[in-house]
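Query structure, 432 tokens:
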């Protein structure tokens, strides 16, 4: 019943976004996803990552068949485009096969499976489709933020960022000094964040095919909820980022051409008008939130997975700042946002108690306090950086410490195996 209710709510949400996008004369998430059955997908890697999520419910033989079918379909489509001289100018020339295999498994679940086997396969298909639909949903949300908010609040965040030492300006200079190699590495990490999440999720779900059930909590749940709730904050706190608000990338809409060489001067901030194209997707930084969840869920994996999770978090932070997509204040808010959602979902999975409620309330309070301070105290924060800078870091650190302390208490205690006590042995007396 829970999965059915979640499916109905998700479908209604997608239909609402489709209607909203049509209102602005553009296709919505359902239309864009349907196009990728035939047309070149925006991200073929994401479609194959979604298929990998679905395959956790299959046997190894079924996985080989599904992968072979996806590659074969992609090869046929590629040859067909070549024969018809169809050029792929946007997106990737592969990925249609993965989407068709996922849809085919949905048909098989409905027509050829029954009972628990049908439910398990449909759950796997649902995870795959939710992952790829989440990308389309995000694109539609970004469109709505740009159309509904003619002004942005970048001067407020840029002023508050003086308390942190303007990290985006510093990181931008470092990335520029690293040359094209460093920029390409960071760009790849930034773009393929969802694929990294699938790698960790597949490890977490590796035993689903054997146990015939999903664990009570895993990375995909947090990843999707972060993407669902984050854009709602965009609507409350619209920000475009320093690369658009303070550089030539913003065209004549930019407040000044300063990034990344010169931090903006401290002044009384006010909303500034901006175009109807650039997404207002900075506050909070969802890339930071997603990378934080990847880092958290990779902690229980093997050493290579833990190293990869730490690398992806570090590189994502460097990319968000170094490319000018976010201010330092966005990253702090994004980390607190991720930890709060992760705590709420873990509490829901294990059963709410006082420790979970306190942790979620702590994270939510700090997150709201951050947004209010950025909006109403930016001048004071910039004027007293040695006070407000450490306060911002301490606020984030308090949520991190509370999360670690509480979740460690939730871990089941491991009792060492009892060693058998030595038993006295009979010793025969020597014969006279």
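Result returned for the query:
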């Amino acid at each position: 019943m829970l999965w059915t209710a979640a499916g109905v709510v998700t479908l209604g949400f997608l239909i609402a976004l489709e209607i909203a996008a049509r209102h602005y004369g553009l296709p919505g998430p359902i239309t864009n996803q349907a196009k990728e059955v035939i047309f070149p997908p925006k991200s073929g890697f994401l479609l194959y990552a979604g298929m990998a999520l679905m395959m956790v419910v299959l046997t190894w033989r079924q996985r080989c068949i599904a992968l072979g079918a996806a590659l074969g379909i992609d090869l046929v489509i590629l040859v067909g485009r070549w024969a018809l001289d169809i050029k792929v100018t946007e997106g990737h020339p592969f990925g249609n096969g993965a989407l068709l295999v996922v849809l085919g498994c949905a048909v098989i679940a409905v027509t050829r499976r029954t009972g628990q086997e049908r439910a398990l396969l449909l759950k796997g298909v649902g995870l795959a489709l939710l992952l790829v639909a989440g990308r389309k949903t995000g694109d539609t949300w970004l469109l709505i933020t740009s159309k509904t908010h003619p002004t942005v609040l970048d001067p407020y965040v840029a002023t508050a960022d003086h308390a942190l030492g303007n990290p985006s300006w510093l990181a931008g200079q470092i990335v520029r000094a690293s040359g094209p190699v460093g920029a390409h590495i960071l760009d790849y990490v930034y773009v393929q964040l969802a694929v990294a999440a699938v790698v960790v999720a597949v490890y977490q779900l590796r035993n689903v095919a054997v146990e015939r059930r999903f664990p009570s909590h895993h990375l995909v749940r947090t990843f999707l909820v972060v993407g669902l709730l984050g854009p709602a904050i965009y609507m409350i706190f619209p920000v475009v980022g320093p690369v658009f608000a303070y550089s030539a990338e913003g065209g004549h809409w930019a407040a000044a051409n300063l990034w990344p060489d010169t931090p903006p001067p401290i002044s009384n901030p006010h909303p500034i008008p901006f175009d109807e194209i650039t997404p207002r997707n900075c506050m909070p930084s969802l890339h930071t939130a997603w990378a934080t969840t990847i880092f958290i869920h990779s902690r229980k994996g093997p050493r290579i997975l833990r190293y990869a999770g730490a690398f992806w978090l570090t590189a994502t932070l460097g990319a968000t700042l170094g490319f000018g997509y976010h201010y330092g204040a966005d990253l702090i808010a994004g980390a607190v946002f991720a930890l709060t959602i992760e705590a709420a979902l873990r509490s829901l999975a294990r059963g709410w108690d006082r420790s979970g409620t306190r942790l979620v309330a702590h994270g939510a309070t700090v997150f709201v306090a951050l947004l209010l301070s950025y909006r109403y105290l930016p001048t004071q924060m910039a004027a007293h950086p040695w006070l407000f800078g450490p306060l911002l870091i301490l606020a984030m650190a308090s949520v991190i410490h509370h999360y670690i302390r509480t979740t460690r208490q939730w871990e089941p205690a491991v009792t060492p195996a009892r060693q058998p006590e030595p038993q006295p042995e009979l010793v025969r007396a020597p014969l006279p």
